[in-house]
Amino acid sequence: MLAIRKPGFLNRLYLIEIIRGLWITMKNFLFHKKVTLQFPEQRRDYSGRYRGQHYIKAVNGVENCTACMLCPTVCPAECIHIVAGERDDKEKYPVKFEIDSLRCCFCGMCEEACPKDAIKLSNIYEMSQQNRTVYEKDFLMEQRGNK
Amino acid sequence: MSQLEQMLMFIKVGIVLAGLLATVPIMLFVERRGSALMQNRLGPNRMGPFGLFQAACDVVKFIFKEDRAPGHVNKFYYTIAPWIAVIPAFMTFAVIPFAGSLTLEGSTTQFQIANLDVGVLYCFSIASLGVYGIIMAGWASNNHYSLLGSLRSSAQMISYELTLGLSLVGLMMVFQSVKLGDIATAQGETLFMIGSVAIPKWGVFIQPVGFLLFLVSVFAETNRLPFDLPEGESELIAGYHLEYGSMRFALFMMAEFINMAVASALITTLFFGGWQLLPLFSVAVAWVQSLNLIPNPDLVQVLFQGISFVIKVASWMWFFVWVRWTLPRFRFDQLMNLGWKVLFPLGLLNVLVTGFLIYKGVL
Amino acid sequence: MIDYSLLAFFIFSSIAIFGSLMVVFKKNPVASAFALVAVFFSFAGLYALMSAHLVAALQILVYTGAIMVLFVFVIMLLNQDLPVEDLKSSSPFFKAVSGLGVLVLVYALVRVAILARGMEPKGSLTEDKIAEQGGNVKLIAESLFSDHVLPFELTSFLLLGAIVATIALAKRKNVAGGLKS
Description:
The complex is a heterotrimer. Chain A is of the alpha+beta class.
């Protein structure tokens, strides 16, 4: 039901309400804590579960990835392209590992699907780039994030 | 006109022009930082200390932007409209006294560009020209939103000009003059004493209702929130300056800020004692005079009067900004109702009551 | 030393003449209205040059600031797509009559200018005496509210009648068959 409020006389006079409103803005102006974050100097702390830029976890410069193709299978945006190869020690490894960051929807399913804990979504959120939208393997191999 | 008088005239015009032009970047800064702080933000603070140079950057940006006009506009009126908005804004200040009088070498100078016979009427008549800039801009832009904005502004200006004039009739009756210089001088007298504190004969104490009416209608005349319907970002995009860019847009903005300055100066002159010294300033004047730094003691007096005037005007301009970030915009029918059904009858009543009180000898 | 008031006179009068021509010759009604604004404004300037500051202020306040704003307002609201009438297609009789009228007016104007040459303002209305008695505003107000108070009030009654009539007409248009709101 629509309730119609009938303002009282003092309310309809506006003046007192206006003065109260002015006081509220002045209070905000003078006393309130400002919420602005001074970005390049101050950074916001994101939750550990934040899904930002990808990277492939590596131990001693060797990627954990075994090119098992679970992540391209599960990826709903179909943005992961892997070409598998064989290392000298008969170990399977990704020759090519590309993530099309324009297609990626940052759902984090690849991270969940990965049995070797290789593909990770870091909490880096500054991902503006000038020319490359496909993350190549070399780029992904840089160890980012805190996971 | 003697050489001295001519020189003083140049100085006065220079002071007023420089002051008004300086208002624009200062108000740009104050408006941006002030609004930000009121909204719990920080605002522009990167350029220079406290972001003070931000205004200079804005100005430079405006100047160096390409000055292009859309193809569908009426070129002639589109080009002159900003100037028609900005020139009356400057002209209005000519009759506002910004300090007392100074006697130099036997001739007395009023610190006012022109002490016209018609005083306040001149202000109103020139201020009413400002609306043509808006109407022209809206019409020449050949755009529905712009036209709506300018139609709104013309209706609004006409409605509130009535109240604007009427609210001052009581004041003119009390001070027996329309000359702003006379009104400012008359406000130096003492109205009554509370203990040992003298309450000066300021317009606001004599004509409180007239002051409120004037304040509201001056907000409407300067197109500031809560009466910024001609611009109305959320409904008319930007109203009459939708099709404008670069320096032409900046001229409209300049006109708005200078109108604000003139309105504040009018409020100060008519209702808050004009250049009369602020309380406690007379002590400061006496102290500086006793230091004997400046040979002419009257000059010190005039200097402090000027400072008082600037402080008063500045606080009223801050009030404009303050109100802008407090109140939401009126709806158009509310605006018209307020103007015609509330303020206008109140103004008439105010004249009637003032006349009665003068007849009874109270005022 | 240039005579600034003469210079101002020439500027204002040329704006007035040029503006009046524009009012007639512009095909766009809004542009005509803007030209008329310029004419009224330059008239105010001419009045001010004659030290009639009050008349100048009222000229701008009333004509330029209020009436012309309403004119422009109405033209902009109503006249968006009105077909422009071609003057060439009007009847030769109409052309002849208007031409004759213009000639008569010009003759009258020249006559008046010749007659008024060398005339001084009549009576006590010199500039210094007006200033002595408290200025234009005071003198006009006093004579308006003492000697001429009856015509003044009658004029306001006339205006009131006009307002009432306008409202009656407007209301009738809104509601078919009567003055009911």
